[in-house]
Specification:
The structure is a single chain. The protein is 37% helix and 11% strand. The chain has eight helices and seven strands, in the order αααββαβαβααβββα. It starts with a helix and ends in a 13-residue tail after the last helix.
Length: 218
């Protein structure tokens, strides 16, 4: 959390990088002047969070033979074999979203949070497969439920944006990975809502009441 979230959020809420990062990285982290600290402390209106996946952390089984960011973290990252994977190879862990929201909320005294991206790429070689995107529908159901659980814990979550409205150009994967609620035929550009789009529509119309509440699983 410190190296992947607090690296960015500690300065704008607390005026400096996390002390654990300073201890580990030393002079490789820039220093803020007192006037700069005063300028940036509590300088944001809300936290925008893009969340897709979670990983487990543990101690290195042996000293890393590499250097840089992934060695500086000082932890070995891994996925639980029981977790489902999507077409990006990422683990889909709804409980991780709830815990991340709670961590942010406690660290920064309950700031306003908006989830600016949340979604999943699934293997959809054709329209027929895409229209029955049950894994994506389930992903949204679980993650929106996790948002509700976080709110019940007292997290000041004020917004949620699904990624994405339609299939698009996905960075280094081009058009080979599909995150969309709507299927796009990249030849004709025809767009067709998937099952997840209809589900998400109904969730929004019901203000979340369509999603069954469940007890937290830790």
């Amino acid at each position: 959390m410190l190296f992947q979230i607090a690296w960015f959020t500690d300065p704008v809420f607390r005026g400096d990088y996390p002390p654990e990062m300073r201890a580990r990285l030393g002079d490789r982290l820039p220093r803020f002047s007192e006037s700069e600290k005063e300028l940036i402390t509590n300088s944001t209106d809300f936290i925008g969070l893009n969340y897709y996946s979670s990983l487990r952390t543990g101690v290195f089984s042996e000293d890393p033979t590499w250097s840089g960011y992934w060695a500086d973290i000082g932890a070995e990252l891994s996925s639980d074999p029981a977790w489902e994977k999507n077409d990006m190879g990422w683990s889909t862990v709804a409980d991780g979203l709830r815990e991340m929201l709670s961590w942010i909320s406690h660290r920064y005294s309950h700031p306003m949070i908006v989830i600016t991206e949340n979604g999943s790429a699934e293997h959809e070689p054709d329209l027929r497969t895409a229209l029955n995107d049950e894994k994506r529908r389930s992903y949204f159901e679980g993650h929106i439920r996790a948002c509700g659980q976080a709110i019940e814990r007292g997290v000041n979550l004020q917004g949620y944006f699904a990624w994405s409205l339609m299939d698009n150009f996905e960075w280094q994967f081009g058009y080979k990975r599909r995150f969309g609620l709507c299927y796009v035929d990249f030849d004709s550009l025809e767009r067709t809502p998937k099952a997840s789009a209809l589900f998400y529509r109904d969730v929004v119309k019901s203000r979340g009441r369509k999603i069954e509440r469940k007890d937290e699983v830790n």
